[in-house]
Amino acid sequence: MGDGASDSSPAAEKKGAEEEDDFGYRLFPDRNKKPQSFLVRSLFTFHNRCQVMLRMTLETNPYAQLLLEAMKQSGCTVFNDRHFSCENCDGCVSGGFDAATSQIVLCQNNIRQQSHMNRVVTHELIHAFDHCRAHVDWFKNVKHLACSEIRAANLSGDCTLMNEIARFKFGLKGHHQTCVRDRAIRSILAVRKVSKETAEKAVDEVFDACFNDLEPFGRIPHSKADARRAYKDFQNRDRYNANL
């Protein structure tokens, strides 16, 4: 699991002896802790802020709304209190998709702005959508993980021009593809004990097919306006199919 490129999802590199892979769970220490009481959590500022921002994302963000509707149509309805968890995380990780529990983890100590929450929720919902619609082998097949990371980086807004400028990264032709590739590799390396060469090979082998898989958006949404149009098209597509 894990969103290692600062915005991802949940095998092993040989260095003389084979190391056991924890699939990124080391980045999410609260996964193994006993849940805190409601009173303690309600008094915890980070937790409150996380819950408020999450609610705002789910209610107003067109990226998230489209993905929630698509998952519902696929038979995987998402419930706020069941499928999202605000927790403390290690390092600079922002979120992750825990395939073992079908739960999205949001790193309450690292997500401080609404725009960041929007991207993280969208990124992880793409992993959840892939988990719902396909038999993704998150833990044993690095190509499956690579494909979902490519899709998440491509469709979540991670690689918009403004986000890349904020990272002081500039490019001309093909820069979006470069960003998607780089962020997919970084996400894999954050949550898997594999070499950089292994991660790069997995991403490169599936890149074209997965980059061009635009479901459920039908396009690369480069802005909220694009996402709103994609959401409207998705709703109209469902209405059209219902009348066939």
* Stretches with pLDDT under 50, minimum 5 residues: 5-18
Strand content: 5-15%
CATH T-level fold name of the largest domain: Zincin-like
CATH architecture of the largest domain: 2-Layer Sandwich
CATH class assignment of the largest domain? Alpha Beta
Strand order of the largest sheet: 3-5-4
- Quickly give the structural class: mainly alpha
Biggest sheet features = 3 strands, mixed
Question: Helix fraction?
Answer: 40-55%
Number of domains: 2
- Overall average pLDDT: 84
Overall outline: globular
- Tally of helical runs: 10
Radius of gyration: 18 Å
Tag the structure with descriptive keywords.
244 residues, mainly alpha, Zincin-like, 2 domains, three-stranded mixed sheet, two-stranded antiparallel sheet, 10 helices, globular, protease, metal-binding, metal ion binding, metalloendopeptidase activity, hydrolase
Describe the protein in words:
This protein is mostly helical. The chain has two domains: about 25-135, Zincin-like; about 135-215, no CATH class. The chain has ten helices and five strands. The protein has helices at about 40, 45-60, 60-75, 80-85, 115-135, 140-155, 160-165, 175-190, 195-210, 225-240, and strands at about 15, 15-20, 85, 95-100, 105. The strands form two sheets. Strands 3-5-4 form a three-stranded mixed β-sheet. Strands 1-2 form a two-stranded antiparallel ribbon. A hairpin with a 4-residue loop joins strand 4 (about 95-100) and strand 5. Helix 2 crosses helix 3. The N and C termini lie far apart (about 40 Å). Mean pLDDT is about 85; it is low at about 5-20.
